[in-house]
Amino acid sequence: MRSSEEIIDYLNQLKEEQNVSISELARRVGMAKSGVSRYFNHTREFPINRAPSFAKALHIKTEDLLGIEPINRDNPPRMIPLIGTIAMGAPITAEQNIEKYIPEYMMDRYADDTLFALRCQGSSMYPLIPDGAIATIRQQSDVEDGEIAAVLINGEATLKKVLHVGKTVVLRPANPEYKDIILDKDHPGTILGKMIKYEMNFD
User: What DSSP letter does each residue of the chain carry, written as one string?
Assistant: First the structure.
């Protein structure tokens, strides 16, 4: 799944290839030009829930814009564990027990990987990820800059964008009303895995 910056870069590429101005793109997606401009200036996170309208406006599939494989519901789903609740505001203790197993239809590329799901709670990742989303996590010990990861801090889990600054790891919320969390030798944390997608209204 592409990061917010990668989505905007791809949109910009498509916009230039199709000779579509920001004004025209704003008209097609039903937004003010100033709001669309903030996405392209990288001063506002691109909200994933707007991906379908932007994809339609530039004549591509939503999955292509987000960088994920289309879901093939003809194949039987893989059942993955939904593990407790993950905090996206002030972190709360993640219940390390399986609530239930949920069907996962994506993706062939993750067939040999360990996947699990976490329930997101809070508004620190809004508008990128809404409160109540179910995040699918690929278990791995590190992520690239700008990717969203589930991180364990003092026995509590949080979902944030990861940035590397020297030997320091910065966990950055999408919502500017929340502060960065700094991980270093005095304030350690463990990356549980990379978020590869989220879904809403699963139940």
Answer: ---HHHHHHHHHHHHHHTT--HHHHHHHHT--HHHHHHHHTTSSPPPGGGHHHHHHHTTS-HHHHHT-PPP-TTSPPEEEEEEEEEESSS-EE---SEEEEEEE---GGGTTS-EEEEEEESSTTTTTS-TT-EEEEEE-S---TT-EEEEEETTEEEEEEEEEETTEEEEE-SSTTS--EEESSSS--EEEEEEEEEES---
pTM for this predicted structure: 0.65
Q: Could you list the active site residues?
A: 124, 160
* pLDDT tens, N- to C-terminus, the chain (203 residues): 677 888 999 999 999 999 999 999 999 999 999 999 999 998 888 888 888 999 999 999 888 888 876 565 666 778 888 876 555 543 333 445 577 888 877 656 677 778 888 888 888 988 888 888 888 888 898 999 989 999 988 777 789 999 998 888 999 998 889 999 999 888 888 898 999 888 875 45
